[in-house]
Please model this.
Amino acid sequence: MTTLTCKEIVELVTAYLEGDLDDQTTESFEEHLAVCPGCETYVEQFRITIARLGEVPLESLSDDAQTNLLDTFRNLPR
Amino acid sequence: MTGLAIATREDLSPRTMTRAIRHRYPRPVSVPMSDDVLVAGLRARDEDVFTHLLTNWSRSMLRLARSFVSTEASAEEVVQDTWVAVIQGIDRFEGRSSLRTWVYRILVNTARKRGVKEHRSVPWSSLSPIDDDRGPTVDPAAFRGADDQYPGGWKAFPGEWASTESSVLASEVRTTVKAALDLLPERQRIVITLRDVLGHTSDEVCEMLDISTANQRVLLHRARAAVRARLADYLADPPPSGRGVLGEVG
Model:
C-alpha cells in the first residue's frame, strides 16, 4: 500500500473525480482523505468550485442575430 | 448515425437545472430531438428545426465562443458564422460524431481563426498543455519540507469556506468565477468551459478539441485549481493571508 502526501493528493483530485486512478491509487487517495481534514476540505472545495462553474449564466444570441440567421437559412440554396 | 443526442444545460428547464447542478452534471429530462431528426430537418431546410437549434444551442455556443475571443460582439459573430457554416455544410455531416460535437468542432475552428486575428489565440498546436500547465497547482510553500516530521503535509489546512447560500455572496461568487475564467490561459479556459460550465463529458471534449484524455485532464485540473484559489480568496474563513495556525496531518 503506497501512501500519498497532501502535496500529491491535491494534484490527483481531478483524476480521482474522473475515475481515472487505478484501484490501488484510488484506495490510497480515499484512505488519506479519511484521516486528513485538510485534504478532505480541499476536495470538497474542488467539488463546490465545479458546481459553481455549472451555474455561470449563459447569455442568449441577440434577436437581430437570430433574425439574420433565419433569413440566411431561408435564402441559402439547397 | 447513432441518433443519440447530447443533452446539455439548455435542454433543461430551470427547475430541473437546479437539481441537475446538485448532481454535478446536467442530465436529460425529456429526450430532445434526435440527431437524425435534426439533420434531416436542416437538410430539408425545415425552419422549425433550425429555430429549435438556434434557441436551444446558441447560448452554450456563445459561452464557448467567448472563451476564444475577447468581446461579446465577437463571440456573437463567431456563433453566427458557425451556424452559416453548419447550414452550408450539413450535407457533409456523416454522423461519425454527434451533431453537437460536429457543430462545436466547426465553432472551435471558426473561433480560433478569429481569435488569432484578434491576437488572443495562439496557433492550433497549442491547445495541448505546455510546460506551464504541468507544475504544481498548489504553491509548494503550502506544504511541509522533506525534513519535516510530515513531509508533503499541509503547513496549514485550507480555510473552511463561508456558505454561498446567501444571495449577496452568491452573486459575488458568480462574478468571481467569471473573472477567474477570464484570467485563465486560453487552452485551460476552453476545456473548463466545455467540461464544467457547459457540462460535456471528457470524451466529447477530447473529440471537439482533438486532444488526448490525459492532456484534457491536465488542463482541466489546472483550471479548476486556479478557480478554486480565486474562490478561496473570497470565501475562506479566516482569509488565507490571516491564517497562522499550523494544521496537524496524521
About this structure: Strands of chain B lie at 160-161, 236-237. Residues 62 and 79 of chain B are 6 Å apart (CA to CA). Chain B has a mean pLDDT of 82. Chain B touches chain A through 63 residues (CB under 8 Å).
